[in-house]
Amino acid sequence: MHNIILCAALLILGSVSASAQFYTITKEKEIRPEKKQKVAPDTIQRGLGAYEYCKKAEKDSLAPEVPVKLLSDLYARKVYARVSHEKASDKGTEGTTVCVKKALPALTIPNLYREIIRNGIRHPKIVLAQAILETGWFRSPLCRNRHNLFGLTNPKTGKYYEFNHWTESVRAYYTKVQYKYKGGNYLLWLHKIGYAEDPRYIREIIRVLKHLGKS
Questions:
Q1: What is the pLDDT of residue 213?
Q2: Burial status of residue 150 (CB atoms within 10 A of its CB: 0-12, 13-18, 19 or more)
Q3: Cβ contact 149:166 at 8 Å
Q4: Sign of CA dihedral 50, 56, 59, 62
Q5: Which of 25, 33, 64, 215 is such that its CA lies 20 to 30 A from the CA of 6?
Q6: Which residues are 119's β-sheet partners?
Q7: 115 contacts 105 by C-beta, under 8 angstroms
């Protein structure tokens, strides 16, 4: 009986000791937390400076937001810059690039005079008077239907040339008529080559020139 009581007492004391040891361990953990590593003040300052620098660099690298209207205008200009002034291709729509043709000038006396000069035609005022005389001030069917300003005919067929636009007729005047001119009085030269069958042709040109001088 004495031995039993002694064993029981030892067991109780052992459990209490173990509990006290566990409590001491956990308590020390709570009382003695891990030591924090000390950081030098200059290290902290350098870290903050680097952070501010990265933040500023990121802000500067961001592109400003472009308004939608400005983007559409830039796109329209880009598309316009790439548009060709040639005729649109009629080979089909699939896989074919359609080009927009540049608007050609209307037939007026100032535009015609500029076109004559642009093509390097000599004596532009006389040639302008010829176009006015030949077309009856741009009202003749030959002018309206075939865009032929100078009554130019095909020597092989005897038929009037037909042009897609009156500016082509101006160029044809140089390549088919004036390229032969070598200098001198241009009105006399026109009479010499028999430009028109009407014997009053040169006189009528002079009359148109006088009218243009008054206007």
A1: 87
A2: buried
A3: yes
A4: negative
A5: 25
A6: none
A7: yes
Q: Residue 135 is which amino acid?
A: T
Residue 104 and residue 164 in contact, taking contact as beta carbons nearer than 8 Å: no
For 34, which DSSP code?
Answer: P
Provide block-wise average pLDDT over 10 residues at a time, the chain (215 residues): 48 45 43 49 53 51 41 43 44 45 88 97 98 97 98 95 98 97 96 94 96 83
Distances (CA, A) of 186 to 58, 114, 132, 190: 75, 19, 17, 6
User: Looking at residue 183, what is its pLDDT?
Assistant: 94
**pTM assigned to the model:** 0.54
Those residues whose C-beta lies under 8 Å from the C-beta of residue 142, and which sit 6 or more positions away, are 134, 135, 148, 151, 160
CA distance 115 to 149: 12
Count Cβ atoms within 10 A of the Cβ of residue 11 and give its class: 0-12 exposed, 13-18 middle, 19 or more buried.
exposed
pLDDT of residue 45: 58
Question: From the centroid of its chain, how far is CA 68?
Answer: 17
Confidence at residue 103, expressed as pLDDT on a 0 to 100 scale = 86
